[in-house]
Amino acid sequence: MAEIAKRYASQPDLPLEDATPEDEEKVDQLLALVLQRQGLSAIPSGFRRHHYMRGKMWTYLRARKGHLEKAADRAIECIEYIDYAYEKACEFETVAPEEYKDMWDEMTPAGFFGKDKRGCSVFYSLQGITDAGGCVRETAMPGSNNPYEHFERQDWYGAFFFWDTMFAESLLVNKFLMGRLVVSDFSMLTLARALRGRGIMAYQKSIWPGGEHPMPEGFKTVFLRNTPWIVVSMWGFVKRMVPKHTLEKFHIFKSGDPAFLEALLEHVEADQVSQSVSQSVNFSLLMVVLIIVRKDTNPLIHESHLTDPDPDHIRWDEQDAVALRPGR
């Protein structure tokens, strides 16, 4: 996190993706308005500097559909909150038990694979076998009144890494990238796992400023793949938790729908898609090598996991994790 803070203090402004000349002018107006409201004559230095960059102002503006006053309100809310988020992410590094980190790595498989046509890495998650609710239960900190305490730390750590990698890729293409493509596979989702995780979104909404994630526009497009009836039936609940402008980015594909691959290839060149994704629309996405968000564990999922008699206990092979883990 200290390295991220250093980069945040020195990152250059970049050309804005998908911005018209009118948008560019509004971004400058928004920055001036935010500084005025905060009684600042210039952009702050240090860690906070990043959150006043034109690219970040563009995210706040987009999150409020171009409305300057509302975007200024949102920008100030997010900027004031970000110190708390950074503190929690740092606690993940310094306070969180290693066995808790290992459990989250094992039971919430997700990471980057390939890049889209814009040069931004694609984020894949295996939501079907993710057991975030079970992890919350098992990693509740002893003596804490908040069962989500560890979850909140690892969630902020992941959020900073998610954005930091996108900033690095923005530098490579000389453009402030506005969100990344996300592919979530729901194969083998069970009702028990879905119900265990139902409280997480409500908790996040309760602690985020204004009930929305304070790092807006992280998603450009979201594909929900191999969605069973559970997802469809719970979608009404999910929609109440997600801002309308974010919901518009979601696209749902039922199990075996060939339209998924067609949609994916509109955003990603074929050589940037794993063969296990392109050759089948079934659960073979598990064969993708995922770079786990924490960066220090890169497990490989084996086909043998597909035959586990109890999907709730699918786990990584320890020899694979050791072979691919550079150490903490």
Describe this structure in words.
The chain is of the alpha/beta class. The chain is built from 14 helices and five strands. Mean pLDDT is 82; it is low at 280-328. It has a five-stranded mixed sheet, sandwiched between helices.
Keywords:
328 residues, 9% strand, alpha/beta, Phosphatidylinositol Transfer Protein Sec14p, 48% helix, single chain, 5-stranded mixed sheet, 14 helices
Chain-wise SSE layout:
Layout: H1 2-10, H2 21-37, H3 54-63, H4 68-94, H5 98-107, E1 110-115, E2 121-125, H6 132-138, H7 149-173, E3 180-185, H8 191-196, H9 198-207, E4 219-227, H10 229-241, H11 244-247, E5 250-254, H12 259-267, H13 275-278, H14 318-324
Parallel strand pairs: 2-3, 3-4, 4-5
Antiparallel strand pairs: 1-2
Helix pairs in contact: 2-3, 2-4, 3-4, 4-7
